[in-house]
Amino acid sequence: MKFQVVLVAVVLVAVVAGKKGCKYDKGQWGPCDQLTNEMKRTMTLREAKEGCEATMEQTRACKQKRANCKYTKGSWGECDTTTNMRSRSMTLRRGDPECAQTSTQTISCEKYDQIYKMKDEKKKARELMKAEKRVVKDMQKKLKELHKMGCTYTEEVSECNQETQKVRKTFTFSGVTNPCVMDPVEISCTMQDKFNKIKQRKEQLKLKRKNKKDRKNKKDKKDKKDKKRNHKRGGKQG
Predict the structure, then answer these.
(1) pTM tops 0.90
(2) Which long-range contacts (CB under 8 A, 24 or more apart) does 64-68 make?
């Protein structure tokens, strides 16, 4: 409440001075008064003007520096059915002198369940992603080896299965003397979407390069044709 009163006083000083058109040079804030938890500064009038005080004083609450405390966190206790809260103890690892040696952290049981359920889901998603990346890596390695053996293939991708959220990739080999075999591979629809986007970007880049090359060839032909025409005109004039 005290902070609010001080803040209002500072604002009122500025508003009153502003309405009269008084302009002041602001001094440095003084030290914090530990008894009132306030700090002051003096403002000096720039140019003498009727209705403007020669000096004014501003007051504001001291800015409290937050202690830097690092704690070692213990394990969460069981849910207290009476308070519907969980708690854990924390021991000071390092920090400022004003830091408490021990502290207790509390959290509602519902919030705890939400946080750790989300963490478990993220962990499972990361593990699934790692496993899928290994499958894709093995697939690409196998296809590369078959390509070196002279195997050619066509790839067919099924529609996304809405229940499993996966697609099935089937490889059909043809026109080879070596035995080329590749088992079907299942990957997530999300991963297949990434493959499709990469493929699309490659095709766009390929088309862009082709168009650039065609424009260059067209320009070179035009320049050559113009040069030949100018040469003929020069010969006739001679």
Answers:
(1) no
(2) 67/95, 67/96, 67/98, 67/99, 68/95, 68/96, 68/99
